[in-house]
Specification:
about 200 residues; mainly alpha; 10 helices; about 60% helix; about 0% strand
Amino acid sequence: MTEFPSRDETLALMREYTQSDSLRKHMLAVEGAMRAYARKFGEDEERWGVTGLIHDFDYERFPNNAHSATEEHPAEGVRILRGLGYPEDVLDAILGHAHYCNMPRTSQMAKALFAVDELTGLITATALVRPSKSVHEVDARSVRKKMKDKAFARGVNRDDVINGASELGVDLDEHISFVIASMQSRASDLGLAGVS
């Protein structure tokens, strides 16, 4: 791969490695948020989008319950991607989204990936407990309320959501609203367009 990998190639790779529908939708949600932030910051939308789309592709095969910095997710995925010619800034951002890899998030892209990753999960969970199951009925206030409920979406790290917005230099409520809007724009792809 001599040029930057296309979205189609990346999507095919993600689907090859990931069977879980919810994990695939998570990566699509992160991709959408990354594309939206790239547009906002005047950055390369394809590069940011591909980074979001592929960041967890190895999670199902290499779950890394031990939180090893060098084995399993995301280190194993980064080795695979490096072998396929994905550029180092993409790989650094992917390593940076997992605290235990100890990769400093120095680029705006890495900070954005960290900032949107856990938040998309929280927004998805907030939408799915609505009777309509629609992200169109989710707003920053409802997400903030769910954040305070420690029993809700236990897998979502609240500190990562808060620190991610801070690292990215954006107000938390504006960040939540921004990511909700990015998810609303692709709600049907995410299975969050609602039930009729």
